[in-house]
Amino acid sequence: MLRKHLHYNRYRGDAAASSAQALEREGHVLLTGVFDPHEVASIREGVDRVFSEYPSDGRVGAPDPPRSEMFRYEMFNRSSLVQAAIENPRILEAVEPLLGEDCHIIANTSWRNPADRSSAPDGQQWHVDGGPHVVRPPGVPWPEEIPYPVFVVTAQVYLRDVRLEDGPTAILPGSHRSGSLPPHERMWDLDLTYEGRGAAVHTASAGDVTLFVSDTWHRRMPQGEGTRGRDFVQCIYARREIAPRVLPSERCSAAGPAARERARSLRQRQLIGLHEPCFYDG
Predict the structure, then answer these.
(1) Are 198 and 126 in contact (CB under 8 A)?
(2) Which domain holds residue 268?
(3) Is there a single domain that holds both residue 275 and residue 190?
(4) Residue 282: which of 24, 127, 110, 145 has the closest Cα?
(5) Rounded alpha-carbon distances, angstroms, from residue 167 to 2, 114, 161, 215
(6) Whether pLDDT at 159 is above 90
(7) Which CATH number characterizes residue 97's domain?
């Protein structure tokens, strides 16, 4: 755990919320009843308006119109109700001891996975959301006496119940400490384990919030008969040192017109902060 003092990271010796401890230890936690039915209805109202007023963004990860239609980005820019939701104290008390009191949001996307098994017949494969942030060779365990550093945490604010048949998020506890990616040859394996532990499947009620460390091995489970799809607002919280990706770097960059003109190659563009969209960009 850490706290900020004069903009530096300092060791935090006092007790943090149990949700923060679970994130640090297990890599995930499900917060129940964060938003009451009235609050959920208000957030949904804000999301409904954004979906009706803004066309799909068509970012990376949504390569065709049907999949692109599932998402709306930069939600805190587009809805004051969503902005209020992502400031919720129960979420912040879980992430701030790990990321710092000056942590910020690097992506904020609304997801509407349709009640259509054809859009994701097998769910989504095991993956990590960027990183791993401390890469290690196979067979090198993380020292037990050193808490694993957390750089990015994802929150999924559920606007509708997520049942097993709706394809909930599944997370392998402790896998954020692996320093590696899920094994490629088992990326669709529902029985994948990490250090002998199987997946924690986050079935949830509207108003609950899933939190998970970006380094965790996680996936969407397959949908079943009678699926209703998923409807949630996703918010990515990160340490101050990690750049926001709410907007693509082409639209939000320190690089001025002359510098952009001089940067001809991909590497030259990367050096001045003009990155190709990936991971949290979509």
Answers:
(1) no
(2) 248-282
(3) no
(4) 110
(5) 35, 11, 11, 21
(6) yes
(7) 2.60.120.620
Selection from 120, 127, 209, 208 nearest residue 171 by Cα: 127
With a threshold of 0.85, does the pTM exceed it? yes
Q: Are 111 and 44 in contact (CB under 8 A)?
A: no
Residue 281 binned pLDDT confidence (cut-offs 50, 70, 90): low
For residue 60, the model assigns a pLDDT of 67
Strands 152-158 and 169-171: unpaired
Q: Dihedral of CA 167/168/169/173: which sign? A: negative
Summarised one tens digit per residue, pLDDT across range 160-199 is 999 999 999 999 999 999 999 999 999 999 999 999 999 9
Do residues 153 and 190 share a domain?
yes
pLDDT confidence tier of residue 279, bands split at 50, 70 and 90: low
Contact partners, residue 281, CB within 8 Å, separation at least 6: 59, 60, 61, 107, 245, 248
Total domain count for the chain?
2
Angle at 274 between CA 59 and CA 233, to 5 degrees: 35
Q: How far apart are CA 228 and CA 112, in angstroms?
A: 10
